[in-house]
Amino acid sequence: MRSKKTNFLQTIVLCSGIVYISIGSLFALSPHLFGNVFFLEINEDWFMEIPKDSFMFASITLARALAALLFTIGLAMVLPLFDPVKYRALVYFTNVLFPFISSIIFIKSSFTNPLPVLIGFSVIFMLIGAFAFIALMVTRDVAKTEE
């Protein structure tokens, strides 16, 4: 059933999906492009040395695979757009739990190296988590009536 409450939840889900697809695809396709888009200084010589260092190569490969996972999660955000009440569990995990854990990691990393992009991501992910949590609480009564 459509209502203003479920439309609010769908808007949050759509916005988070766009963020996940954007960030995930950008890093999965090219970490170098990702760095350039977010104004991160990338030493070309160091970047070319990554394949020679097994730890850095494994780290970058894992990060790219996880970025592809983030892209896939962003695509999965289309499901709650069709039936936001049916896919509430998906929204809890991908729009509340994941962003809060990610923002904690970003904040913790910002203490070590306060890069503006990390602070920005922590704010974006915290907002996604907070708004999704609010939307899920607002639509809780709708979910109970549809059971």
Write up this protein.
There is one protein chain. Helix 1 runs antiparallel to helix 4 (54-76), helix 1 packs antiparallel against helix 7 (116-138) and helix 6 packs antiparallel against helix 7. The chain is elongated. Helix content is 82%, strand content 0%. The longest helix is centred in the first third of the chain and has 26 residues, at 4-29. The protein is built from 8 helices and no strands. The protein has one domain (4-142). The protein has helices spanning 4-29, 31-37, 44-49, 54-76, 79-82, 88-112, 116-138, 140-146. By secondary structure, it is mainly alpha-helical.
**What's the structural domain tally?**
1
Amount of beta strand:
under 5%
Helical percent range?
over 70%
Overall 3D shape: elongated
Structural class determined from secondary elements: mainly alpha
What is the number of helices? 8
Order of helices and strands: HHHHHHHH
Backbone CA Rg: 18 Å
Head-to-tail CA distance between termini: 12 Å
- Unreliable residue stretches: none
Number of strands: 0
- Major sheet size, sense and barrel closure: none
Mean pLDDT: 90
